[in-house]
Structures are given as C-alpha cells and as structure tokens.
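Work package 3, deliverable 3.1, input record:
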Amino acid sequence: MFHLLQTGLNSTDAGSYLPVGIQILIAIGLVAFLMFATHMLGPKRKTTDKLQNFSSGIESHGDARQPMAIKYFLTAILFVLFDVEVIFFYPYAVNFRELGWNGFWAVLMFVGFFLCGFTYIIKKGALKWED
Amino acid sequence: MWSFSHIANELHEWLSSIFNPTWTLVIEMVLAGVAVIGLFAALGLVLVLMERRVAAWIQIRLGPNRVGPQGLLQSLADTLKLIVKEGLTPSGADKLLFNVAPFIAMIVAMLLMAPIAFAKDFQLWDMNIGVLYVSAVSSIMVISILMAGWSSNNKYSLMGAMRSGAQIVSYELSAGLSILTIVVLTGSLQVSDIIHAQATGWWIFKGHLPVWIAFVTFIIAVTAETNRAPFDLAEAESELTAGFHTEYSGMKFALFFLAEYINVFIVCAIGATLFLGGWMPFHIGNWTQFNHVMDYIPSSIWFFGKTFFLIFLIMWFRWTFPRLRIDQLLNLEWKYLLPISMINLLLATAMAILGWHF
C-alpha cells in the first residue's frame, strides 16, 4: 500500500495532519495567483455606475442588510441541534458489533428522545412558512 | 505496468535516492498539490463542456460546436475570456469578505480531494477518519456562500445566500446519515477499508434494502448540497439573477463556478466509493472468465467511469425536475428524508447485528 502524503497511517497526533496544512497553502497560492493574473491582465476602468450594486436596472433602495425571515435562522439552529445527534452516531457506527444488542437498545432509546424533540418542533410549526 | 500506484512508487523511490526523507516528503506534497491543481483544471474544462453537451442532447439541440473540433475547446476559450475580464468589487461591498469568499470555496474543494481513492492503491491521504473528514470539511462550503452573499450588499445575493445556508445545512443531516449506513456495514471510517469491504460485491448489490434507501437519500441530499437543480434556489436565475454570486465578475466568479463543479465531482466520487465500490471492478459470483476480463480494465477507469455516471445522473436531474420552493425544499428534508434515513440507519444496524447476508 502506498500513499503519496502518508506520514503515519493510524497516528492521531496533530503532526499527521500536516498534509492538510500544505494543501491549504497550495490552494491559497493558486487562488492568489489567479486573482493577481486577472488583476494584471484585465482592464481597470471603474466608474460610479459600474460600482453600484446590481438591481435589475432600477434604482436600488436602501441597504441590502435588512432583517430577514426568522425561519432561515431557525433552520440553522435546528441543524446545530440535530447535527450533534448525528455526530453521536459516528462512534456507535464503528463500534456497534462489540456492543451488540445492549448497545442497540441504548441507541434506540436515544433515537426515541430524538424523535420526541423532532415531533415537538414539527408540531410547534418550525417548518410552517405561511403564517 | 502503467498503473497510477506503480508510477507513484517509482517517483517515490527516485526521490528517496536523491533527497533525505524529510525533503522527499515535502517535494511529494508539492507534487501532489500541483497534480491536484492540474486535475482541477481538467475537471473544470471537462465538466462545463459535459454539462452543456448533456443539456443540449436532452433538449434536442447541438450545444457548443464552434470552438475547436466538435466544440471541445469551448470551455478553454471561456476560461481565457474570464481571465482577461475586469474583476470589480462593488462600492457598497465589504471589501475584505468579498475577496476572501472565493479563497474559502477553493480551499474546501482542494481539501476534499485528499481522501479520494482515484485508483488501486493510489490515494493522496488515506486517513483513519476519512469519511468523517469529508463530511466535516464539506460543511465549510456554506461559510463561503454566506460570506459572498452578505458582503456583496445586494438583495439578490443575500436572499440566495440565506436560502443556500438553510438548504445546505438541512441536507447535510440526511447525507451524513446515509454515509453512516455504509460505515455501519463496513465498521470503519477509512476510505480504503470501505473499498476493500466491497471486493466481494459492491454495497449497492450486496447491501439490500438499507443500502438502496441510503443511496437514493444520498443522491438527493448531495444534489441539494451542491446547489444543483432542482434544488438550485441559491442561484435561481429567474428570481434572483444569479444568487450569491450576482456581484462577482471575472476570475472571482470563475473560481466560484469551478468550485461548484469540483464539488459535484467530489460528491459523486464519494458516492461511487461508498455505494459503487470505488475502483473495484464489477464481478459476478463465480463467473471466473468474466471476472478476469473485468480485472483487465484499469482500476482508474472503473473509478472515473462510476463517478462520471453519477455526474451524468445529477445533470439529467437538472433537465427533468422543476425547481422547488424553499418551504417545499425544507419540508422534503425535515419531514421525509431525515426520519427515513434515521430509521434506515437503525434497520441497517439491526440487520448487521443479526448477521443477515453480509
């Protein structure tokens, strides 16, 4: 088995994540190079009309950063709650064979709690968009 | 033998004979980076052309056919045009965030290339938490979209970014759960282990009902996560001009565009690895002759063939289904896909504990 960037197959220390650092540097380098190239090659004629925000050809009114529908933020909060529950499944998914049926009943209970919370948010109308 | 792993081994031995181990590692990392950039460029050119040709084919028209033979150089010409365009930053925009957003999009795309196995024994970085790494890194993408949308100070961009944020985070739940189904069946998060577990048959064939449900959920979820039609609310042309990248022009726009196509490739590669056996050739039980013939096809062709089949499937969706509304989109995820994939995961676990078939 050969891997180009392998520093240690199962080592968990931070040093084994060096390839990620190098990849980030290369990605930054690539984007910076492309942006610099387009900055050098492209024309630079900036007028006030050109620098205005696009609003389909009509005069734009006010600032865009106005309050948004709360539903978007609610979805994000719900995601955080439920994603934590999904993350708990990762260690279980790898170890469930040793845990056997005992582990399975425990996870079933966990999913039961999960579904209680889930039913609560649905009944509460978290996903109802038309008031 | 001209296999990828053979070439990489030769290169490694040649470099080791010249430099000491530390420098060999550093040079290999730089070479891998350059190779990934080359792959990016190739994928960008191929996928854009493929999208346009597939669209043309489905709509019974010709598509790009003027630049080069059969229009093959069309996307190269487009890239050249985009490089020599002026890159504007609108005066109302947050200058720093506006210019940082394309960097983040490309960094995410590049980091996601690391754990993908392109051919037999050829993988940039086979870490022990490969699948977790993929789902962790791919969720950073939403930050670049929100950053681009908010900093533009444009109503269309902000609307697109908010929609995209809600959509990507929602669909990540069922994508994660359907990936977990395969992790349960394999018992490992390492990409090479997952592929080797499919030596006796791809999961889609030997996994039965739980894997079929997981595969369908996964395809729907990744179509939504990459903002592709019918879930392309983030850049719904008919209502939001271009969504979160309305204000981007020239190379900055091209980087978002490239990152989007790279992400499509990556999720399809992950799908091919998890469900369709990665680089494993297609084998049927004990048909020894048939299996030998299949083994002659190089593993890289198997991998890219499966990946491009899934990409074609996602492109096909785009011209088949009408676009959803944001509440329909969130209902589909939260009320149907999430409970289904949760129960499906439990089903897969119970089946694996009972030891049925696999």
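Strands of chain B lie at 117-119, 122-123.
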